[in-house]
Amino acid sequence: MAALGLASGGVVTERKAELLLDEGRHPDADVIEDPLLEAGESPTGTWNASVCCS
């Protein structure tokens, strides 16, 4: 859980659950990807940065 930024007893938002369980991405994928996109990284590169289990 700690590797994913989740704490025992913490609240998981619907968005974080969707990212992790439906898409197999880090629960904070939006936070990880936004700065990369703003820096000019390709959408594929940003997606690869937020995949949990690749």
Report on this model:
- The protein has 54 residues and is mainly α.
- The chain is built from 3 helices and no strands.
- The protein has helices at 14-22, 29-38, 43-49.
- α2 (29-38) packs antiparallel against α3 (43-49).
- The mean pLDDT is 87.
- Helix fraction, binned, reads 40-55%
End-to-end C-alpha gap: 17 Å
**H/E topology pattern:** HHH
Radius of gyration: 12 Å
Mean of all residue-level pLDDT scores: 87
Count of DSSP-assigned helices: 3
Q: Which outline best applies? A: elongated
Instruction: Report the biggest beta sheet as strand number plus sense, adding barrel if it closes.
Output: none
Question: Outline of this structure?
Answer:
With 54 residues, the chain is mainly alpha-helical. 48% of the residues lie in helices and 0% in strands.
Label this structure with key terms.
54 residues
List the helices and strands and how they pair.
Blueprint: H1 14-22, H2 29-38, H3 43-49
Helix pairs in contact: 2-3
